[in-house]
Amino acid sequence: KFNTGDWSGQLQAFPIDASTGAIGSPLWDAGARINLQHWDTGRRILSWNGSQGIAFRWPADPMAPTATTLNAAQILALNTSPTATVDGQGSQRLAYLRGSASNEGVAATNYRVRNVSKLGDIVNSSPAFVGPPRLNLADASYRTFKSTYASRPNMIYVGSNDGMLHAIDADTGNESFAYVPAAIYPRLSGLTAQGF
Question: CA Rg, the chain, in Å?
Fold first, then answer.
């Protein structure tokens, strides 16, 4: 579900009565849950810098990125405005993408307001449920796999137009983590644009 007013998204869980097929009230809304997670301390957002997995965080020294931070090209992409001007607002853009509302507003220098949810609109992405393996196969390697992952949590994976793949706990609706693919960096600053 998505809102075209601010291009925010909703992923909701509804109970279904097994005997009547009636759909009940929502059990949770992942967009609302993400809003409750603090953008800086409450979300685990990961990425790839071309060599290894990293935290999606602004580097302590953006002039000298390390092997465990964003790389120079990623820093430059975030420091570039939607109109292709290098403006040095990379740390503010990254904070916005993580969910900070501190620079949201309607002025030309502000970022797009997200009234409903920090979860981006879910368009052309189908939620995928992954839980413990359930097949009863005779294959020994599958039985080992099934036993090893018998307590794997129920998760829903969905991409949204906030530059992230979200891993949502299917039982609670809480975001367990999100992933920003390296290939999307050249387009991330566009997500802050008023006209997005």
Answer: 19
